[in-house]
Amino acid sequence: MIDVDMINARREELVEDLNKVRLRQEEIEKAKLENVALQNALTGAVQQCDDFLNKLNNEESDDSFDEG
């Protein structure tokens, strides 16, 4: 037979589970933001390398014109 105490006990368990899930969701959102920031930083680093390579290629092209 179901009584008020059983329902209240089950409700407390559910509230605890809900709070755990909410906390996990907050952690996931924080990790997502950190991943986006890391992706942006890595993308910027790759772009900087590409820029350096382009500058080196341009310098080499300028040097070959000077020799000719």
Tell me what you see in this structure:
- With about 70 residues, the protein is mostly helical.
- About 95% of the residues lie in helices and about 0% in strands.
- It contains one helix and no strands.
- The chain has one helix at about 5-65.
- The chain is rod-shaped, with a radius of gyration of 29 Å.
- The relative contact order is 0.05.
Distance between the termini: 99 Å
User: What proportion strand?
Assistant: under 5%
Question: Averaging pLDDT over every residue, what do you get?
Answer: 94
Largest sheet: none
Order of helices and strands: H
- Give the C-alpha Rg: 29 Å
Overall strand count: 0
Q: Fraction of residues in helices?
A: over 70%
Q: Determine the structural class based on helices, strands and strand pairing.
A: mainly alpha
Output the number of helix runs. Answer: 1
Overall spatial form: rod-shaped
Quick overview of this protein structure:
This protein has one helix and no strands. It is mostly helical and 68 residues long.
Characteristic terms for this protein:
mainly alpha, 68 residues
Itemize the secondary structure elements and their pairings.
Blueprint: H1 4-67
